[in-house]
Amino acid sequence: MAADTRSVLVVEDDPEINAMVGTYAELCGFQYRSALTGMRALDEITRKTPSLVVLDLMLPDLDGFEICSRIKSADATRHIPIIMLTALSGEQNRERGSRCGAVDYLTKPFDPDKLMASMERHARRNGNGMS
Fold it and tell me: Which residue in 2, 9, 43, 75 has its CB near the most CB atoms, within 10 A?
């Protein structure tokens, strides 16, 4: 499983939000990949490991907490930073996201600058900063 340098997988079932997040990722220099379901996201990660995942929690098949847990439990993918981007607010959800391995938790509607700063920060920490 080869790692994609500076790629982000956006897992969001709303195509418009998915594309918007992808645009912000591209502005940060990431190659944007998209998944509209949890199972598709897991397939994409297996096919070609992204350097970062932006993950919605409310998806039609698997919820984001389950996807995060699966990514973090596999040796080949546990290093991938996961940023949760969701309409679910509340400290309990934020704590659950942290427990399953997310590095950041942003709520919708979101500030694009905060999202881009988080993507940059966590890609850099993961060794995928711009050259």
Answer: 9
